Amino acid sequence: MQYSDVVMDHFKKPRNVGKIDNPDGTGEVGNPICGDMMTITLRVKDDRIDDIKFNTFGCGAAIAVSSMVTEMAKGKTLEEALAITKESVAKSLGGLPKNKLHCSNLGADALHKAIMDYYEHKEGKVRETKEGEKVEHIGEREGKCYCPYCDAGLPDPTPICTHCGKPTLQHSDFPILKGAKE
Amino acid sequence: MKVIYLDHISGNPLHPQVREAIIDYIKKDGFGNPVSQHSIGDAAMEILEDARAKVAQLINADPQEIVFTSCGTEANNHAIKGVAFAKAKKGKHIITSNIEHQSVARPLRMLSQMGYNVTSVSVDKYGLVNPADVEEAIREDTILISIMHANNEIGTIEPIAEIGKIAKAKKVPFHTDSVVSCGNVPIDVNEMGVDLVSIAANQFYGPAGIGALYIREKTRILPLIDGGIQESNRRAGTPNMIGIVGMGKAAELARVEMPQRTEHLLKLKKAVMDRLATIDKIVINGHPEKSLPGLVSFSVEYIEGESMMMMLDEEGVSISTRSACASGSLRTSHVLIATGLDHATAQGTLVFSYGIDITLEDIDKAFVSLRKSVDFLRNMSPLYKKG
């Protein structure tokens, strides 16, 4: 198996599976055509993540990432949770196979999106950081697919990577004579 | 924990009698080179020719039309490149289907980069090629038709005999990749009208690392591997005698036992289909009747195949998935897309392939594990809504 022991542990015993009713924040990323899809729901108390749950459609890595990111975020302040990155999730999991680093590593994106969703509902579109800086919170990477070959972010699910030109989904090597028939 | 192996399409366990035959050979002879013209060489030659005759008998061919190769992939490469190179002066057009195995698709891609033209005919929702499409695609310069006998991912068996008639009428050499079907369903090279047939021993309880290519007499073909005079100048290299002994025995057993094996496999297939019918939102892939007895491909909606495969593996059930996430390239299976399955559903595709060593009890146990993982993963899936 290509996965680390930590990945296997989180895959076999995923933490925080489910959906919080009437959550304070929801973050949904990915789509099943891209490969993986994840929804994170949050409960916030005193600026801290009091409870967090996930639902994921995806491979073993995607499930382990979801489980790990919820564990990392639980109990943290929102500022601390926003500092969690794809890289720190992958590192905590003892690494991920190269071709899964982006495609299945949606956890941090979903978490950030859920926190932004919380801010939008509680504070309006703009929030103030500790340093007093005003930040617009719009998730930058939401819903993106990533090319498995060059890691470039793709704006929409596309059969050919717009960056390196390699097929991202599936392709035929030859001209197809006729369309599939019923 | 006893592992229930439901991935026979990736390789079958050795038949006990095949194992015996190989051990016997190693103990008694084991080293003679059939090309040598002394008594040790002659003894090896006799064993080689005996195995060749058994493989020939399995597909109703003449022993001289059988060339041993290192595997099914080599046989496919040999058939395609060998004919393409031999007939390059006559033409450069080749016809194939869009559900072929990589060992056919990749050599054809290489040839297309070298200036050959390849036409790929599409399949219907069951994965069936329409022979009329093949006929329509034939041109003046068509030098080869290569359509697989049975598909390795969905099990659909193609109308080879009908295509064979067309190929014969148009005088175009016809190759079929029968790697997953040979030894499991009857093959008669004359009834099917084929000129080249690829075979692999590990698909019928023989060892891995040995295969064969049937080449009809008078077919123009160049060797893939050049060197000595082995295999009547068609495949150079000292023969893999241990593999060949195993393949010969496996072919003999496959021919003799095929009716009982098929009966057993169909019984298991019915059990698998009956149990699948009790799970919500399952799509069965491949043709309901024209398919391999030992394989069922199905897609479980709302969940992904690699995670199912991993969960079943934890439970001691070995299966295979066609999810893009489990393939190195992260690409969705070209076969499933060719049948019109959407990308999301294709992600949840599993292949159960079983053999003569699998019992109804094994199938039952596997389904307990399958249900468990489907429930667990659907419960986790944001796409699945209960009720």
In short:
Chain A is an alpha+beta fold and 182 residues long. In chain A, 28% of the residues lie in helices and 19% in strands. Chain B starts with a strand and ends in a 7-residue tail after the last helix.
CATH architecture of the largest domain in chain A: Alpha-Beta Complex
What CATH architecture of the largest domain in chain B would you give?
3-Layer(aba) Sandwich
Q: Which structural category fits the helices and strands of chain A?
A: alpha+beta
What is the straight-line distance between the termini of chain A?
A: 39 Å
CATH superfamily of the largest domain in chain B: Type I PLP-dependent aspartate aminotransferase-like (Major domain)
Give the biggest beta sheet of chain A.
3 strands, antiparallel
Q: Identify low-pLDDT runs of chain B.
A: none
CATH topology of the largest domain in chain A: Sufe protein. Chain: A
Q: Care to count the β-strands of chain B?
A: 13
Topology, number of strands of chain A: 7
Q: Report the end-to-end length of chain B measured between terminal Cα atoms.
A: 36 Å
Order of H and E elements of chain A: HEEEHHHHEEEE
General form of chain A: globular
Major sheet strand order of chain A: 1-2-3
Q: Note the main sheet of chain B.
A: 7 strands, mixed
Task: Using the coordinates above, name the CATH class of the largest domain in chain B.
Answer: Alpha Beta
| Helicity range of chain A | 25-40%
Protein model, in words:
The complex is a heterodimer of chains A (182) and B (387). Chain A is built from five helices and seven strands, in the order αβββααααββββ. By secondary structure, chain A is of the alpha+beta class. Chain A folds into two domains: 137 residues, Sufe protein. Chain: A, CATH 3.90.1010; 36 residues, no CATH class. In chain A, the strands form three sheets. A three-stranded antiparallel beta sheet of chain A has the order 1-2-3. In chain A, strands 4-5 form a two-stranded antiparallel sheet. Chain A has a two-stranded antiparallel sheet with strand order 6-7. In chain A, α1 crosses α2. The N and C termini of chain A lie far apart (39 Å). Chain B has 387 residues and is α/β, with parallel strands linked by helices. Chain B folds into two domains: 131 residues, Aspartate Aminotransferase, domain 1; 239 residues, 3-Layer(aba) Sandwich (Aspartate Aminotransferase, domain 2), CATH 3.40.640. In chain B, 42% of the residues lie in helices and 14% in strands. Chain B is built from 13 helices and 13 strands. Chain B has a seven-stranded mixed beta sheet with strand order 2-8-7-6-5-3-4, with helices on both faces. In chain B, strands 9-10-13-12 form a four-stranded antiparallel beta sheet, with helices on one face. Chain B has a two-stranded parallel sheet with strand order 1-11. In chain B, β3, α4 and β4 form a beta-alpha-beta unit. In chain B, α1 packs antiparallel against α9, α9 crosses α13 and α10 crosses α13. The longest helix of chain B is centred in the last third of the chain and has 36 residues. Chain B is globular, with a radius of gyration of 22 Å. Chain B starts with a strand and ends in a 7-residue tail after the last helix. At the A-B interface, β2, β3 and α2 of A face α4, β4, α5, α10 and α11 of B.
